Known about the structure:
Elements: H1 22-33, E1 66-67, E2 69-71, E3 75-77, H2 87-95, E4 98-99, E5 102-103, E6 107-111, H3 114-117, E7 124-127, E8 137-140, E9 146-150, E10 158-162, E11 167-172, H4 178-190, E12 197-202, E13 226-230, E14 253-256, E15 262-266, E16 279-283, H5 288-294, E17 299-304, E18 307-317, E19 319-324, E20 327-328
Antiparallel strand pairs: 1-9, 2-8, 3-7, 4-5, 6-7, 6-9, 10-11, 10-19, 11-16, 12-13, 12-18, 13-15, 14-15, 14-16, 17-18, 19-20
Organism: Oryza meyeriana var. granulata
Keywords: Membrane, Transmembrane, Transmembrane helix
Pfam families: Pro_isomerase
Amino acid sequence: MPxxxxxxxxxxxDGPRGGRLILAILIAAASVLTLAYLLSFPxxxxxxxxxxxxxxxxxxxxxxxxxxxxxxxxxxxxxxxxRLPSAAACCASCKAMCNHxxxxxxxxxxxxxxxxxxxxxxxxxxxxxxxxxxxxxxxxGDDVMWTSGLVFAKGDGIVGLETNIGTIRxxxxxxxxxxxxxxxxxxxxxHNCAGxxxxxxxxxxxxxxxxxxxxxxxxxGPPYALLxxxxxxxxxxxxxxxxxxxxxLRRGSVAWVGSGPEFLISLAxxxxxxxxxTVFGSVVPEDMAIAEEMALLPTSTDVxxxxxxxxxxxxxxxxxxxxxxxxxx
Length: 329
């Protein structure tokens, strides 16, 4: 049976980081002690409703943007001549201009507040960015009446987590998790991910097959078939992520744990965890071998709220870099 409440996992300490004040460390320690095991108690009762084979997450049905954001750039369709009833419809209109991986539109701007938009209500501007991973922003904040979003062409919107083992490439999902993608764009702009690391690694064991399908009559952990880490950058205060699209976790899903900065890469289909996690990306299929290799690294055990977990003896640090299907750029 699943727990009656869903607490969060605590992040183990691997020593103080350079430049951290002792007070900040103590506050962080107090915070993580309140966290527990969101990933540690799967609900077996719900797994029977999950399809035996689950493809990596896609953006089918997802078309969201960021409120209070006005993207700039050359227009491929003027909003004064292109009015639609919703931001989702504007997003879909942009996506419709993607054909065979080539997107004539890769960003959209919509005005959906009748009071603030006035005569501009319903305008849907379709635009083409010079660099979709560094979009041109003219205004951002609560006083901005526009909602904007991104659309990635095939091969765009890929971030590589570069480790000493190899690079795990992640296809970001801007239509499903625009706030999360916005954070990645911020990290890439800093050219720094100091402190970002994997610290928990649990393989599939004999509980899931190589496709991530749960074996009949097997337990649901431990181990729990996942990598877990943090995307908190040293010196950059992390703003908790809002909850976005939360499909069932599939093999290759990349999702926030709670509201971040902890995140996970799922090595198996985890329908038993229901729809509890914001999924913001998907590992490029050929890179799952690197994730599996990481799960075989030496670990030690710890107990989080009476649940045994496996922690990497040596955390695996990574750099976040722009990437493509062919490699890190």
